[in-house]
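General statements about sequence and structure are easier to judge against a single worked case. No coordinates are needed to read the tokens, only the vocabulary itself. The sequence in question and its structure tokens are set out directly beneath this paragraph.
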Amino acid sequence: MNLLRALRIAFVSLVAALALAHTGAAQAAGGTYRLDGGTAYERSQVHAALAASSFNWNRVRAMITIHIRPGEMSHSTRGEIWLDADLLDSGRFGWATVQDEYAHQVDFFLLTPQMRAELQAALGATAWCYENASVIAHSDQGCERFTSMIPWAYWQSKDNAYRPTSKTDESASMAPAKFRVLVARLLGS
């Protein structure tokens, strides 16, 4: 009995050590990215969030660096994502934000000006992405509606924090099935 317990402890320790040592790139339907910072649990939440979505994140062929920091406001720039470690510690609640920020990479790397114009009109946005100084509301930006739609359209779970609760929610800008058809047409899938 003690030998079995010792083997279990050794196995769990080995798995934990491997998880903590992992700093390489992840490649699957979950995208191509490198994690910077975060605990093993927080890193696992990034993997799980992207895997939960039916969106093919591998369409973004660039290596994305995902920084995990406590108290960091989640945001993205071309090729980089910053995520709040505290949000990832909440588990599934944070998954939609991970997907939202990776969806910005879809915008940065895959969308053309013509695609953005079509999405802006289809999503009922006033501007695409903060290029018009007179349009400052988050919900008026096409890029924000687009990146809010992706988590809901491709991961329709009761656990999705972006699940719309009203018709005015950014993730309710378009019916999910209609949005998926539009995105598939634009991205050529």
